[in-house]
Amino acid sequence: MPTVTWGVIQGRKEKLVSRVIICDYLKTIGIIPDELEELELPSTVEVMRERVEFLQKIGLTVDDINEYPLMLGCSVRKNIIPVLSYFEKIGLQRSKLGEFVKNYPQCLHTSVVVELVPVIKFLRGLDVEKQDIGYVLMKYPELLGFKLEGTMSTSVAYLVSIGVNPRDVGPMVTQYPYFLGMRVGTTIKPLVDYLVSLGLSKKILARMLEKRAYILGYDLEETVKPNVNCLLSFGLRKDTLPSVIAQFPQILGLPLKAKLSSQQYFFNLKLKIDPDGFARVVEKMPQIVSLHQHVIMKPVEFLLGRGFSTADVAKMIVKCPQLVALQVGLMKNSFYFFKSDMGRQLEELLDFPDYFTYSLESRIKPRYHRLQSKGIRCSLAWFLNCSDQRFEERLYGDYIEPESSGPSFCMGGKLELPGNEIVSEEEEDSDDETLYRRTVSL
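Structure tokens predicted for Transcription termination factor MTERF4, chloroplastic (442 residues):
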């Protein structure tokens, strides 16, 4: 029986003739029509030429069409124009439409109302900003092919169940939309369970994922586990791993063995810090693995030029690794104030190298002048290493309380704050938050 194709009545013979003519045309322009055998083609070569020219006009090449020749089965007016018009409406730039179709040509077969609109509504429901929708789709166009009630919904539900704030899911999608296509059982949950087994609480892990969703893309067997084993092999203590990961989550996805080997050799050769000292440095400041060596040398050379020996500088860096990331200009100002205004000895900086990490104008000067007005003489750590409230308490106290060490993190337990042995339940609940804010601020 004859069929109606694109408004032209054709019998079987006419259809075969038209197919041969269209295939010959496609061959002449370099398109291989082999995959089009099962596809219903237009009745005339003019209609096919219109499709090819339209696709080329939006930026596709013959090679791009050969990658997915089934796009030639889409009508310009019924499929291509409505789909591309909708993409432009939701934020995709017209100049990027060709690139988008090249990356995900299957979109041309979709129905705007039935398939595209529900996905966009789903993304908006996750709090993805309207102006970010186009960016998200350009980054991960395969989103358009997922079922809403399937992978996307379950991955979001699982992350919320471990403590991710629902309001942060939108920014997470904008930053790393690929997690919407990850299976919970085979990808997300095994990674979460492994990190929890290292001592990270789910609350801290949730805060990490909110800020750095790309952690979910690290391969557990190929990258994460080998990197954790690498840290241990370089001398880091197992109970410090939660703190290391919370401070610098990217360490789980770096080519870590090469970086650690290079930095350990550099620290030993140039700074005279042995492998054990290097491990302590990484525990306190894991970002050191990615710090350029010429950046590290600038503060070191400054300290050497101020009368500290190489051994002294090595001790100071092991005590306070943040020294190697400071701006030399700020260090100069702080050192000048220390020598000229405070008139103190270098040994005090050797005992408390953290002095250089505090702001001269907002902390060191104001607090020092308050001490001067009270006639109080104390160590650097006593008046700098405390909050404003604690400083006021110390300033007006009848005695100088003994100094204590800073917060410490115990694997699988709460954050221990020296001097606060008795803590209420509410305070205990906030310990994980306190650790996370402290480590991230480093």
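The mean pLDDT is 87.
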